[in-house]
Design goal:
- By secondary structure, the chain is mainly alpha-helical.
- 68% of the residues lie in helices and 2% in strands.
- α3 packs antiparallel against α9.
- Residues 139-146 have low confidence and may be disordered.
């Protein structure tokens, strides 16, 4: 998969400048960042643009290669559902999101009052996307790696769906400073890699595309946006669901639940600034504030 990952990196990198230029010419997709600088947001739309053509090539190669992996079609289908589904929901939130309702409690409180918010809509439809991706992906180790009625009676898809849905929101919690969300993505990807013992097969292409986005995000030339943070988090959840044991999946899920609960009460930016090591890591590669 290294060759496919390199190809994804090259394709995403080559698309970066023209796509970000187009985003910069679209007023609804130009926002002030934390420093008050106007830059294009939703740079995460580069993810499906760079990844999906390579996914297609992988699928074509798998059909003619005698050494093809039976798990790849289901995994690529699930990855495509995550990238497109969460990418579209994230883009919608980037365009229509409001500053009044922040955090899960605010969005669900609005839903109880009969008020639809962009975040509430993203949460409900995000759950549907997570369930679809989990059913397409198959269980741990890749058994039944395609959508089938038998999958509905296997409880593992519920855990996989929870990991995907919660992962999508977890990375988004950190998209507050240049490069921060991508650094958290790479950290979580590396932790799953250590536990799983391999790089995730075709999901390595997602990490390669994220790496291609890193320079623009770090230098505050563009914001990842919900269009990027949500699908990246969903991919982390999918990676964990497909490759970790049930016990480790539950541990990973509880860790993400703790982060989401903490985000309702704490400021991660303030927490990071109070720790010299975290502050150094957070500002690594960034221009001086």
């Amino acid at each position: 998969m290294i060759i496919w990952a390199i190809l994804t990196y090259i394709l995403t990198g080559s698309l970066s400048a023209p796509v970000l230029s187009l985003l910069g010419q679209s007023p609804p997709l130009v926002r002030k960042n934390y420093a008050g600088k106007l830059i294009p947001t939703s740079a995460g739309i580069l993810l499906p643009l760079g990844i999906l053509p390579v996914f297609l090539l992988i699928m074509m190669w798998e059909t003619v290669s005698p050494g093809g992996s039976a798990v790849t079609p289901g995994l690529i289908t699930a990855g495509t559902v995550v990238l497109l589904g969460y990418g579209l929901l994230g883009l919608f939130d980037d365009l229509a999101g409001d500053e009044v309702h922040r955090g899960w409690r605010a969005h669900f409180a609005a839903l109880r009052r009969g008020q639809i918010t962009s975040g509430g809509l993203k949460a409900l439809w995000g759950l549907v996307i997570a369930i679809l991706a989990a059913l397409f992906a198959g269980g741990t180790g890749g058994e039944e790696a395609a959508l089938s009625p038998a999958r509905l009676w296997n409880w593992t898809w519920l855990l996989a769906a929870a990991l995907i849905a919660l992962g999508a929101n977890t990375i988004n919690l950190f998209d507050l400073r240049p490069g921060r969300a991508l650094k958290v993505f790479f950290l979580l990807y590396f932790l799953v890699f250590l536990a799983a013992g391999h790089a995730g097969g075709p999901l390595l292409c997602v990490a390669a595309a994220a790496l291609a986005l890193l320079p623009a995000d770090l230098k505050a030339r563009a914001m990842l946006g919900d269009a990027g943070a949500n699908p990246l988090g969903g991919i982390i959840g999918l990676y964990a669901a497909m490759n970790l044991s049930p016990v480790r999946q539950v541990a990973f899920l509880l860790a993400m639940l703790a982060l989401n609960a903490a985000a309702e009460r704490l400021s991660f930016s303030r927490w990071i600034d109070l720790s010299p090591s975290l502050r150094w890591l957070d500002r690594l590669g960034r221009d001086a504030d």
